[in-house]
Design a protein that fits this description.
The protein folds into 3 domains: 230 residues, no CATH class; 166 residues, Immunoglobulin-like, CATH 2.60.40.3680; 63 residues. Helix content is 44%, strand content 30%. The protein contains 11 helices and 17 strands. β3 and β4 form a beta hairpin. It is elongated, with a radius of gyration of 40 Å. The relative contact order is 0.10.
Length: 477
């Protein structure tokens, strides 16, 4: 990071030298013409009493001091323009650094799918094949696997029992497979209520609190074996997970990584599944209503976003949008669309910070104009050397803003450093110069507001004018 500061200083000096080089020839010609003009005036007014009594040494010193003040102003203007590039390089360095003292949390995007409920029932299926003699010889060589293109895979996880029989029918052989399989019949939730609260972290990351309430019931006249499956986000770290169904806690996932509850439900019996967890994600959050086109009876999702969000293309739009809340209400719909929100990058805060730094050169010019105006109004003679020294101190305070902001934040950097320069300049020019230096030092900080910078500039101007009027009245009374 030090190399960026060094590069900024070198860049500022190079810019000043380049500017001075470009202006040196016009300045030399201008000064030569001015010297010739002064010589001609002196030669033509030799007998002028005022010219003979004038203190030319003092006037020469004043002119040289004014020239130094102009050069200091140009140098300060050039240096302050590098503060913006310095801050941009600092932001890029932080974004690309492998290790930093200010880590930005990041994680994969979160995709949460709707849990499922299914009725488990055993069904027996039978398949019969008539095989010619040559195919029977092939079975004798390759085994029953030769029939795999024509029959169901017996190794499927839902196969409970398998019976294969062969019988002869003339020259042919009749093959019969009887398979008992555990089938699932999806059951829609009576109601689904999901609440998600997001706590925004740096960058596009977030910490989400998830809570889902799912109610399902047995509407059949006979008992059923129901199975509840809850899939967790696949790529994220889950904390404080709690899964319960009807008051019974599910502690461990099954072999597929899903939390499974299975029990007998009597006719008309109703169960509620409650799932809670915390997860850190970034960029997007999605909630899928199912991989198949299933009917949604009553669904509500309430999201507290903690800031502005956008919506992914093709996702379901919310039913209601509040300041920091979104609500989706679905009733009796069939959809495969997801509920998907995206967290935009924290560009606005970065842009207003860079906008505030771009006002630093203007602040320097306003300080010089204000200091000269205050000196003229109160009859205080501004010595060019003192004015140049005050400009140097004020410029150093402004230029230190991105350095202080790097450690204490943008608000602190754009308040502490410029005000330090303002009070340093007041030590040289006197207390009255604070009427010009403090408003000029506070000007860049007004641009940190993304929506009220104009109002803040107006209030700062009114406050500065009010302070000047109060001081003038106090001096005249």
């Amino acid at each position: 990071m030090i190399e960026y500061y060094t590069h900024a200083v070198v860049h500022a000096l190079e810019g000043f030298l380049a500017l001075f080089t470009r202006l040196s020839t016009p300045l030399a010609i201008l000064m030569g013409l001015a010297a010739v003009a002064v010589g001609l005036i002196l030669a033509s007014h030799r007998e002028n009493k005022w010219l003979n009594e004038a203190n030319w040494r003092r006037h020469s010193a004043a002119g040289l001091g004014a020239l130094c003040t102009v050069l200091v102003l140009i140098a300060g203007w050039t240096c302050l323009h590098t503060a913006l590039s310095l801050a941009q390089q600092d932001i890029q360095w932080r974004a690309s650094a492998e290790a930093t003292a200010n880590p930005v949390p990041d994680a994969p995007a979160v995709t949460q799918f709707e849990p499922t409920v299914a009725v488990l029932a055993e069904h027996t299926y039978q398949r019969t094949l008539t095989l010619p003699p040559d195919f029977v010889q092939r079975i004798g060589t390759d085994g029953v696997g030769a029939l795999s293109p024509y029959i169901t895979d017996p190794s499927a996880s839902n196969v409970l029992k398998l019976i294969d029989t062969f019988r002869r029918s003339g020259k042919d052989v009749v093959f019969t497979r009887q398979m008992t399989r555990l089938d699932e019949e999806p059951v829609p939730f009576a109601t689904s209520q999901v609440n998600v609260a997001f706590r925004r972290l740096a960058g596009r990351a977030y910490d989400a609190d998830f809570e889902g309430h799912y109610i399902f019931l047995n509407s059949r006249p006979e008992p059923i074996t129901a199975r509840f499956l809850f899939p967790l986000p696949a790529e994220n770290t889950i904390r404080n997970l709690s899964v319960s169904v009807g008051g019974h806690t599910v502690t461990e996932p099954n072999a597929s990584g899903e939390y499974e509850w299975r029990s007998l439900m009597r006719p008309g019996e109703q169960w509620e599944a409650i799932v809670r967890y915390h997860v850190i994600g970034a960029r997007t959050w999605q909630y899928g209503l199912g991989s198949k086109r299933g009917k949604v009876q009553t669904f509500r999702l309430l999201a507290t976003t903690g800031g502005p969000v956008t919506f992914l293309r093709g996702s379901l739009q919310p039913s209601a949008v509040g300041r920091d809340t979104l609500r989706w209400d679905l009733t009796n719909v069939v959809t495969t669309q997801r509920l998907a929100i995206a967290f935009p990058p924290d560009i606005e805060r970065r842009e207003v910070y860079l906008q505030a730094l771009s006002a630093l050169p203007t602040s320097l010019v306003l300080f010089l104009i204000g200091a000269l105006a205050i000196g003229w109004k109160f009859g205080v003679r501004m010595h060019p050397g003192a004015l140049a020294a005050a400009l140097v101190l004020f410029t150093l305070g402004l230029w230190a803003s991105p350095v202080v902001a790097n450690y204490l934040g943008a608000q602190a950097g754009l308040l502490i450093a410029p005000l330090s320069g303002a009070f340093g300049a007041a030590r040289v020019l006197g207390r009255r110069s604070l009427l010009a230096s403090v408003p000029a030092a506070l000007l860049p900080a007004t641009f940190l507001s993304p929506t009220h910078s104009g109002l803040l500039v107006l209030l700062l101007t009114v406050a500065a004018i009010y302070a000047i009027v109060r001081v003038i009245r106090a001096e005249t009374t």
